[in-house]
Amino acid sequence: MRLDKFICKSTEYSLLEASGLIEERRVRVNGLVVTKASSQAHINNIVTLDNEPLTPRPFRYFLLNKPADTVCSNVDEVFPSVLNLLNAERLSELHMVGRLDADTTGLLLVTDDGHWSFNLTSPEKKCEKVYKVMLSRPISPDVAKLFREGILLQGESTPTLPAKLKIIDPYNALLTLTEGRFHQVKRMFFATGNRVKALHRQRIGNLELDVDIGHWRSLTLEEVGDLSL
Q1: 109 and 136: one domain?
Q2: Cβ–Cβ under 8 Å, residues 107 and 127
Q3: Of 47, 100, 106, 212, which is the most exposed, with the fewest CB atoms less than 10 Å away?
Q4: Is 101 a catalytic residue?
Q5: Whole-model pTM?
Q6: Any alpha helices (H) in 75-150, and if so which ranges?
Q7: Domain of 93?
């Protein structure tokens, strides 16, 4: 992680204060003075502040059932931040692993491990995400084939990756994606002449949503590791 963030995670200093400590040449990495806050500090590096070794706090991983009318942001906007639901310290250090729209509900991962979340959201990961979708019109029988083959969304230069659509009834379906483009589910159905009325994410990888709306829990080490594969 960045050196300034490493210091913040090891102390009570803010990012601005950590950057100042680095500029004052009070920070060493493997015995060498480092003066750039953007320098990378790896897990096997020895980082010291005023010759005292720093040990970062353990990373945190949360599963949260996001209610509607909340935003995936670290600050309140038109709607309140979903982080307000977490009973955790140092909320400013946390970030959402991907985003859900304000009106979308369901499984949301929250962490302070940037490397983990980057890998999890990387297109190469092809991590499955399952959404329950409610539509305004009956689902056309050929939509599943279109999604399976990939469709070109407005403003995009490449088609969507193959997606699996399981029709539950004429107005409800389960959609499985392995990518996360901007408003992707809504845009995919809009491209077929339909409109999403309600959207709920219920699974990421092998991780199923298992807490009530507005509630959260910590991930187990096994769950963190499974999502890292």
Answers
A1: no
A2: no
A3: 212
A4: yes
A5: 0.88
A6: 114-121, 143-149
A7: 61-122+206-228
Determine contact, residues 132/109, Cβ cutoff 8 Å. Answer: no
101 and 136, same structural domain? no
Looking at this protein, which amino acid is placed at residue 87?
N
Contact 201, 104 (CB under 8 A): yes
Residue of 101, 112, 113, 212 marked catalytic: 101
Name the pLDDT band for 21 (thresholds 50, 70, 90): very high
Length of the chain: 229
Helices of type H across the chain: 3-10, 15-23, 114-121, 143-149, 184-191, 221-228
The CATH number linked to 183 is 3.30.70.1560
3-state secondary structure of 112: coil
For residue 228, pLDDT over 80 is answered with yes
138 and 101 in a common domain: no
In this structure, the answer to whether residues 114 and 22 fall within a common structural domain is no
Contact 175, 147 (CB under 8 A): yes
Q: Kindly state whether residues 115 and 133 are assigned to the same domain.
A: no
